[in-house]
């Protein structure tokens, strides 16, 4: 990790993290990755459509899936975020105490990087897929084992992930805490302890709590809400809440939007992390049409909630889904059939992401009355400072930048220009629109971070390819005024 010499500013309190690239950039990058025969409308992908709207669209895959050419062709082109479905779980990573195995997850990380996908880490602390040695520990050793596991795994993937599901599925359906090894040993405090340990191991990755059946307003989501509120009030590092969203056909909760919004009001971002929508088999055309409406409503809701940063479908096609194995007689839960052909829900999802939206015809400008200039006392000149960090691997890098308004008047709508080192080329960006992709580029604000009050900051980031020079950019200027970096 390289940083400017300045100390890192406090993590911004505002909800950030939605992905946004210019439509042109998104389509261009998706097009270069699009394999022949790809299902979906020519030239557009769920990924590019979602990114043009400022959110991500992701999927979960296993290392075994990497041997399936049809699956990887869809995964690598249609989705911009990848969650390893099993390979980052405790039973794979640390099957015996102190012995760590990252090879399976590393393969998935390499696949994501090769396809310029970002990654969600799943999951560090969970009662399931937990090796028996953890459950057999005396209570007074569980905290040390948990901390060691988190420190090692988060450290291994430091700088490579967008987010971690730090604690998964900690609640029972009635909102009580699940009495697993962690709760039994440490009580409710294990959640804060896990989050703090993760933050110490990677200061930049987003830290999430993740659960199912918390999508609507109910006792379980109330419990998550109260926990998040309490953690935030104590200053515990927590950036987001993941709503798994394993839905049953026709039962997307009508309170989804209100529920997501009560969480974002607490200062966390939200994401749909494991979306699927199961139906009784065989699937009828009526059911498949309903599934399209279900997917579309989830997407429309996320787009309508400021701070909803993206949606991940759990699995690529119906044949990869966990549903038939767990709910006999049910299935057909994803956007793709067993042969990776797009189902009606694909078109419904693409439409919800704006695929059919007509490009607005610019209104011919008839010269109207000249607006009277508002008398203004000239305020102090814009003044700014930029801090940043970069994490790189052989051909790629992830960079996070924070621009602070060091002047005394608010900035309303901003453009930060800077020079990328030779050989670096932006492939995707979040919380800013970056154009062009190389050379002297300009990052412009997205809707929700356009105003920077005096003393406040805006943060954004991008992923780029490089040819060896992984230095931070130089020559920053905010709306034409040079910024300091040291
Ligand atoms: O998709 C995962 C499947 O391959 C595993 O067999 C299963 C074991 O619990 O876990 C699945 O993923 C789960 C996820 O990690 C947490 N939420 C529920 C998912 C479906 O079971």
Descriptive account of the structure:
The chain has 486 residues and is α/β, with parallel strands linked by helices. It folds into two domains: 23-30 and 44-352, TIM Barrel; 384-485, Immunoglobulin-like. Helix content is 29%, strand content 24%. Helix 1 packs antiparallel against helix 2, helix 7 runs parallel beside helix 9 and helix 12 packs parallel to helix 14. The structure holds ligand 9MR. The site of ligand 9MR has 7 residues, from loops.
Topology, please?
Blueprint lengths: L1 E2 L19 H11 L12 H7 L3 E6 L7 H10 L2 E4 L5 H4 L9 H12 L3 E8 L6 H4 L3 H18 L6 E6 L12 H6 L2 H13 L4 E6 L7 H15 L6 E4 L2 E3 L7 H9 L4 E12 L4 H20 L3 E6 L9 H4 L3 E2 L12 H9 L31 E9 L3 E10 L5 E2 L2 E5 L5 E6 L1 E4 L4 E6 L5 E2 L4 E9 L8 E5 L2 E2 L4
Parallel strand pairs: 2-3, 2-10, 3-4, 4-5, 5-6, 6-7, 7-9, 8-9, 9-10
Antiparallel strand pairs: 1-12, 9-11, 12-13, 13-20, 14-19, 15-18, 15-21, 16-20, 17-18, 21-22
The structure holds ligand 9MR.
| Content-based structural category | alpha/beta
CATH C-level label of the largest domain: Alpha Beta
Any idea how many domains?
A: 2
Strands in their spatial order, largest beta sheet:
2-3-4-5-6-7-9-10
- The rounded Rg comes to 23 Å
CATH topology of the largest domain: TIM Barrel
Percent in helix: 25-40%
- Using the 3D structure, state the CATH architecture of the largest domain: Alpha-Beta Barrel
The parts where pLDDT drops under 50 for at least 5 residues are 6-42, 358-379
Fraction of residues in β-strands: 15-25%
Bound molecules: ligand 9MR
């Amino acid at each position: 990790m390289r940083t400017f010499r300045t100390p890192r500013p406090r993590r911004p309190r505002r909800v950030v993290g939605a992905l946004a690239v210019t439509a042109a950039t998104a389509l261009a990058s998706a097009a270069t990755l699009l394999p022949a025969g790809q299902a979906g409308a020519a030239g557009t992908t769920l990924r590019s459509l979602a990114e043009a709207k400022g959110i991500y669209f992701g999927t979960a895959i296993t290392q075994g899936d990497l041997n399936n050419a049809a699956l990887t062709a869809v995964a690598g082109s249609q989705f911009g975020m990848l969650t390893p479905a099993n390979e980052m779980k405790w039973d794979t990573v640390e099957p015996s105490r102190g012995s760590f195995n990252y090879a399976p997850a590393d393969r998935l990380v390499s696949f994501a990087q090769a396809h310029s996908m970002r990654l969600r880490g799943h999951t560090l602390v969970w009662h399931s897929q937990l090796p028996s040695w953890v459950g057999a520990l005396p209570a007074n050793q569980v905290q040390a084992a948990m901390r060691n596991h988190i420190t090692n795994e988060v450290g291994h993937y430091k700088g490579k992930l967008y987010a971690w599901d730090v604690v998964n599925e900690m609640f029972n359906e009635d909102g009580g805490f699940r009495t697993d090894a962690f709760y039994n040993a440490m009580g409710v405090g294990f959640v804060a302890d896990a989050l703090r340990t993760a933050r110490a191991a990677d200061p930049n990755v987003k830290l999430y709590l993740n659960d199912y059946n918390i999508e609507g307003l109910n006792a379980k989501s109330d419990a998550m809400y109260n926990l998040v509120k309490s953690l935030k009030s104590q200053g515990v590092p927590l950036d987001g809440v993941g709503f798994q969203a394993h839905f049953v056909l026709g039962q997307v909760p009508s309170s989804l939007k209100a529920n997501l919004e009560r969480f974002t009001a607490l200062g966390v971002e939200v994401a749909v992390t494991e979306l699927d929508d199961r139906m009784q088999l065989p699937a009828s055309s009526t059911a498949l049409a309903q599934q399209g409406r279900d997917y579309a409503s989830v997407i429309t809701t996320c787009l309508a909630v400021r701070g909803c940063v993206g949606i991940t479908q759990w699995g690529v096609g119906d044949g990869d889904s966990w549903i038939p194995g767990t709910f006999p007689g049910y299935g057909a839960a994803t956007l793709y059939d067993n042969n990776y052909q797009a189902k009606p829900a694909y078109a419904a999802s693409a439409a919800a992401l704006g695929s059919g939206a007509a490009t607005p015809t610019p209104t011919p400008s008839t010269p109207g009355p000249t607006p009277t200039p508002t008398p203004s006392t000239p305020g102090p000149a814009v003044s700014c400072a930029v801090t940043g960090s970069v994490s790189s691997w052989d051909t790629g890098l992830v960079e996070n930048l924070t621009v602070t308004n060091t002047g005394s008047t608010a900035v309303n709508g901003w453009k930060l220009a800077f020079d990328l080192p030779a050989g670096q080329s932006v492939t995707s960006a979040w919380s800013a629109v970056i154009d062009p992709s190389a050379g002297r580029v300009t990052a412009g604000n997205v809707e929700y971070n356009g105003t920077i009050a005096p003393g406040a900051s805006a943060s954004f980031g991008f992923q780029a390819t490089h040819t060896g020079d992984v230095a931070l950019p130089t020559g920053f200027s905010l709306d034409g005024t040079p910024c300091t970096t040291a």
